[in-house]
Amino acid sequence: MLRRDIFRAGLAGAAGLFGLRQASAATGEERVKVAYHLSDADKVNFVLGNIKNHYDGTGGNVEIVLVVHGPALAAFKAKSASGATSSRFAGLVQQGLVPQACANTMHGMDIALTDLLEGFQVAEKGGVVKLAELQRQGYVYLRP
Question: At what angle do helices 83-95 and 44-58 cross, to 10 degrees?
């Protein structure tokens, strides 16, 4: 009988700890960290829409990094970006979005940081390296 009571107490304690962890996540104590990967030029508006939905759906309780490389980076050139993309992007940066531009793509496309929409940072080691680093830091990887 004593073993059964000890087992039940241990099981109840484990369930209680699991419940506390769920409750702390529900109360917003833990911020989810998400890394969005964007390389396809035809998905720029789709990904920006997903990011907006992510902020809206979490009440802003999320850390989002957008890593852009390849053909998609051209859509963020300040002189040629569409008004919709520029406006949407600026709003997301105000909400906390951290956009990272691949240094390798920037070099290959002859794009300077000053050529990009305001808010971009440079992923010095490259976009894919940055994505791996973010995943190692606990970011959830999303490639819509």
Answer: 30
- How far is the C-alpha of 73 from the C-alpha of 125, rounded, in Å? 16
Compute the C-alpha angle 12/17/20, nearest 5°. Answer: 125
Q: If you average pLDDT over every residue of the chain, what do you get?
A: 87
Phi, psi of 40 (to 5 degrees): -90, 120
Tokens of 76: 């963020």
pLDDT, one tens digit per residue, over 47-67 is: 999 999 999 999 999 999 999
Predicted local confidence at residue 12, as pLDDT: 44
Name the CATH architecture for the domain at 31-142.
3-Layer(aba) Sandwich (3.40)
Domain assignments of the chain as residue spans, ordered by start: 1-30, 31-142
The whole-angstrom separation of Cα 33 and Cα 45 is 21
pLDDT at residue 30, rounded to an integer = 82
Per-residue buried b or exposed e for 86-123, using 16+ beta carbons within 10 Å of the residue's own CB: eebbeebbeeebbbbbbbbbbeeeebeeebbbeebeeb
Residue 13 has, within 13 A of its CA and on its CB side, a CA count of: 6
